[in-house]
Amino acid sequence: MCSSHSTTVFLSPSSLIGNLCTARSTCCPAPLQAQTFITISFKANILQASDARSHIQSLGRAMRVANRSSRPGLTTSDRVFPGVLVPKCAASKGETSGDGGFQWRKRSVTPGLRQSSSPPSSSSSSSKKSQNGKESGKSSPPKGSAGGPRRQGKGASRPVGTFKGRTISADRVASSIPRSSSLDIGEGEGKDSSVNGSLEKRKKPPKIREQVRITSPISKDPKIAILGGGMSGLICALTLQEKGIRSTLFDTGKHGLGGRMGTRHVAQINGDQLAFDHAAQYFTATDPKFKKLVNQWMEEGAVREWKGVVGTLEMGGKFTELQSSMKYIATNGMRLFADHLVSKRELIDVVRPCWISRVKELDGRWHLSEYENRQGEFDIVIIAHNGKCANRLLGPIGVPLVAKQMKRLELSSIWALMAAFDQPLPTPISPSGNEQIEGAFVAGIDSLSWMGNNTAKLHASQNSWPYCWTFFSTAKYGKKNKVPQESIPTVRAARVKKEMLQGVEKALGLEEGSLPAPLYMKVQLWGAANPVNSPHVPCIFDAHGRVGICGDWLLGSNLEAAALSGMAMANHISAFCERKGLDPEEFSVGLEDVLLPVGGHDIGQFDGQEIAAKAADTQLLTAV
């Protein structure tokens, strides 16, 4: 890539905004006509004058023609002057635009003008002259534009540039622009963009739509859509099934359901299978209804008690064992537990991977689509996931109170490091026996909040390597190092790995660099990890719009809260359907509740964990 490219901008010394002339880049090896920039000149009185829109468009067309005549991929540097449209080379910044690498910057001196860009076209699309001197291969410009019919006779405007073989005149343009018009060469909301060579106003972010009110009775065989296949969505679907109500579960998971019940299995060349619970680590049970579910899962062999030593680990290796209630884990990993739950479906249809991008009400029913693919019509829609995607989905569909409650939710970000070692880590011994710790809530270290031995937890009888550990950062560290979780920069990933392993050394009281080198490492960012505020209600439901929310964040921050919320949502919908959707005021719940801070550890709430609060107030849980 040439580093000496330049674009020269000439300004007249006049107090007015002078001529703007964009010269051909010096990178062009030869002055070919197709690569020559067209000179565009205008004076400040253009900006004062009627019919500004058409002339703005004309100016945009002229600029696009200039870009189209340049060589595709041309790179330049730019010199910026206040109040002037200056080509900006996106390629020099690692960016791209629709103008063969050029973008147009905003300058505050000329507020109101919105400038667009257009994809480059081949030289064959340029205006051509036939032998008789007439233009060929051109399209008629819009009426009233600067490229329109030329005025003849005396008083003709001074030509200052060409556009499709025609002359652009500043005086002629100025004659019809009202003095009251304002110009804004702007970026952001309302900025014009070009689509197929035409100007089109860029769409603004969707606003929260006014309330939809569905009054038609619900049929005897209602169809429910549940968006999200985590614990709350699965329990909601299974509870609806018990009530005889059919549902369709939509989930984005490529490898399976589960949401934050995630387990990563990694096959090694030598045949070893590495397993990491890289989200939810374990759970406890305090509510009678949830205890009943857990006992059922234990009888089915999907869940078992975790008898490993868990406690609090302070810097330097000081360990304090937690005297908590029973701890539960999924027998073969959290994700396989989700597979077990969905295996009991009879009235549940599962669609995955599927990203519902549009929900639209039509004739009293909700029509769901994954981009251009229709996914069916439903009487009720339940949102069982959260974050920005849920906000974007809820805003424009017509349930403003539900959308506002979801938007008030705040979520933490946490890094997860999965690391496998060929030898055991030198962890402290339990004060109550000779057992080494299997899980620890880490205190006092910025880059580390939890460390868990997956091998000891999931394969208690395995005494040989590899030893698989899951480490979590603190929420503070996650916020400070947050990046797009779908495309983590390599440099950032390497730094997070290094700093989290240094945190492990500090927690265990080891010298820096003495931790065994992992034979496998991978980091993952949970950008929407755990809720930090909650309305402390079992579920949210707009009976007028027939849209609801369930999820752990409504009651706290753990799997028990998620299951109780899903159960409450299903029971509420069942009662609503029995009344055929009538009396919506009676069934609308959770729409105005204030969200309060959620207590607990950075990775969730656990009964018996010293700094954790319970999933929610006992009265709220018993009311589910």
From TrEMBL:
Q: Which Pfam families does this UniProt record tie to the protein?
A: NAD_binding_8
Q: What name is this protein filed under? A: Uncharacterized protein
List residues traversing the bilayer: none
Please give the organism.
Adiantum capillus-veneris
Q: Where does this protein have compositionally biased stretches of type Low complexity?
A: 115-144
**Span list, region Disordered:** 92-209
